[in-house]
Amino acid sequence: MHNQRTNPIEIDKEEFRQIGYQLIDDISNFFDHIHEKPVTYNRSPSEIQKIIGDVPLPENGSKASTLTCKAAELLLNNSLFNGHPKFLGYITSSAAPIGALAGLLAASINPNVGAHILSPIATEIEKQTIKWLCDFIGVSSDYGGILVSGGNMANFTAFLAARTAKTSSSVKENGIENSKSKYTVYCSKTTHTWIEKAVILFGLGTKSIRWIATDDSNKINMSVLESTIKMDIDNNCTPLMVVGTAGDVSTGVVDNLSDIAAISKKYNLWFHVDGAYGAPAAIVPELEKLFKGIEEADSIALDPHKWLYSPLEAGCTLVKNPRYLTDTFSSHPEYYNFSKSEDEVAQNFYEYGLQNSRGFRALKVWLSLQQLGRSGYEKLISEDIQLSKLLYSLADKHHELEAISQNLSITTFRYIPKDSARNVEYLNKLNETLLDVLQAGGEVFLSNAIVNQQYCLRACIVNFRTSAKDIEEIIEIVAREGNMVHSELSKTYKGNTSKI
Known about the structure:
single chain, about 500 residues, alpha/beta
């Protein structure tokens, strides 16, 4: 007979079942009625702190059933819901319900997916997930990779692999600051801020970045890119890598990846694609030409928690030659006994990235890929794009809205009152104020983009709950609230009508 240790943290089988059933009921009800809730309750930090209560760490414990009920009530009544059909703000998708179940299962087993011996089945599931993601976006399954927390970490992991591949071996011992080479990296002005973090954190410094102008379609200007690389070579710099964007976060534009690949090959640069948002759209047959060249990339970042509808956190780095990951991250301290069995070499993910202890991120992605399959994802992603085009079309036809851009599933547009003289300063202030009102109001959640010095409302649809009806209602909400904001804001400019 097993003598169990008595402790306050264990929950017996029957109580666990009852708590679990209640929690699943609460979550199921939440999913079913999410469209009836506000997108956000917009409570201030002090209001939230008051709800939680300013209490010290409890001396004694409480019942698990009471705590889970309270936690559910707090979260279900005080959150911003990115699964709401009118959440079109930052690129966080509505999360697949199967991902919630995957999270419970993964946490229950709690494998450490840093070493195969610590997580045998979880490691193999992550390896298979990586192969499926390669197939998903149309690159060779020979790419190796790792799941990480999100876009920053996915890009950082690739950046470090590039640094290993394109710098001398002495950098590992002496540090990049002692290198004789002055390394440079190239990206368009629309590239996400991760690149600035990377050069600061990993020793190149912000002066190493060459911000390349964009062309009329907001893609990286290829002639400027090549002339800048040539100029740096002439000035004794060492070009390291070029970053192409597959769906920039402001407007959804995809760079000319084939052209970037050719230039990278010509000058022996590492070619990295930041596809954190847009890469999954490569599964849509009509967009195959748009993503041509991604298969030439030395590394790719993509985020399942963006357009694969995975719960946070789930980012991914893919590297054409995975040896550069192990060359960068592998270490073998004497207290690690993770290396091999008699017959096979096990893959240990701690050798592929920055983390040693790693949670089981892959399960939720793996299950979703199987639940939907290729055809299911193609359908949902295509529908998101069509809804974005619908939003653009409706804004373009509306007498008080101006459609600005539409790429992939991102549309930008502005509110322009009928009596406006189209003063840039006033319209920018008007739309900025309008966005604040919309985000606080709870009816719809949009974000912003600056396009050609114009402050725009930005809608990114990575939401399987959004419908055409939601898009039509959003148009009317924006027009209604825009009219009210204009009515108040214009009073500030009274007497100076040129500013309106």
